[in-house]
Amino acid sequence: MESLSRALQPYKELVGNVAAIVTVLQMFSGGFVCNDIRKKGTSDGFSPMPFLGGCGLGILFLKHALLMDDPAMIRANVVGLGISVAYSVFFYLYTPRQSKADFWKQLGTVGAVAMAMLAYAQIENAELVEDRFGLILTVLLLMLIAQPLFGLPEIIRKKSTEGLPFPMILSGTVVGCMWLLYGIILNNTFVIFQNLAAVSLSGVQLALFVIYPTKDAKKKKQ
After folding, report:
1. Are 168 and 83 spatial neighbours (Cβ–Cβ below 8 Å)?
2. Contact criterion met (CB below 8 Å) for 179 and 191
3. How far is the C-alpha of 206 from the C-alpha of 15, rounded, in Å?
4. Which of 10, 61, 4, 37 has the alpha carbon at shortest distance from 190?
5. From the CB of residue 153, how many other CB atoms can be counted at a distance below 10 Å?
6. pTM of the predicted protein model
7. DSSP letter string over the chain?
8. Burial 13-51 (b: 16+ CB within 10 A, else e)
């Protein structure tokens, strides 16, 4: 891995910039979900966690990027955080009155976790905080990516992936591949592990779309 990292060093800035660009583009994939919500006229049936979790992780990844002093990661996470906030506001505007309490509950949970993590980063040993903060971020990231899989029994029962955010999953896979390559160049164990695991989880979800197409896809085949 170290020899590969050295060989790719001349491409560090290029790969970092491309990874930052595709990350920002990936953030716009949530627009497809928002458009579905707009057409439906309500966010009922959709989970706000991809957007709220994006806000929380955006804050934490920005902090981690600042700890690493990595310009490409800083730029990507500043823009990504702004987009996630916009999506969350949009989601809230289409949330039925009876579901708004649940929205605020999930937002409170995300906010509490983010605040606790930021507080931890302030008190941790400066020589250890980057690696330990990165490890915790890895766990949180994988939990967010795996969140759609919590509905796997329902997907199997209905034999349909309707409700899963395909554009976000597909673009997330591409982004994960780019940051995985960047992590290899940096020879950063946590960046590599984060994105290798993320790509693996996204791959499982993409496989579900092949096994269980959405109802719309089934209708087109008839």
Report:
1. no
2. yes
3. 25
4. 61
5. 8
6. 0.65
7. -HHHHHHHGGGHHHHHHHHHHHHHHHHTTHHHHHHHHHHHTS-TTS-SHHHHHHHHHHHHHHHHHHHHT-HHHHHHHHHHHHHHHHHHHHHHHTS-GGGHHHHHHHHHHHHHHHHHHHHHHHHS-TTTHHHHHHHHHHHHHHHHHHGGGGGHHHHHHHT--TTS-HHHHHHHHHHHHHHHHHHHHHT-HHHHHHHHHHHHHHHHHHHHHHHS--HHHHHHH-
8. eebbeebbbbbbebbebbbebbeebeeeeebeebbbbbb
| 8 Å CB contact between 16 and 180 | no
Residue 90 in this model has a pLDDT that exceeds 90: yes
Grade residue 1 by pLDDT with cuts at 50, 70 and 90: low
Between the CA of residue 119 and those of 62, 66, 115, 126, what are the distances in Å? Answer: 14, 15, 6, 13
Please write the tens of the pLDDT for every residue from 14-29: 888 888 788 777 777 7
- Alpha carbon 144 to chain centroid distance? 7
Whole-number Å distance between alpha carbons of 37 and 42: 6
Token digits of residue 64: 């981690």
Task: Report residue 155 as tokens.
Answer: 């997907």
Q: Which two tokens stand for residue 191?
A: 């960046």
Under a CB-based contact definition with an 8 Å cutoff, are residues 102 and 49 in contact? no
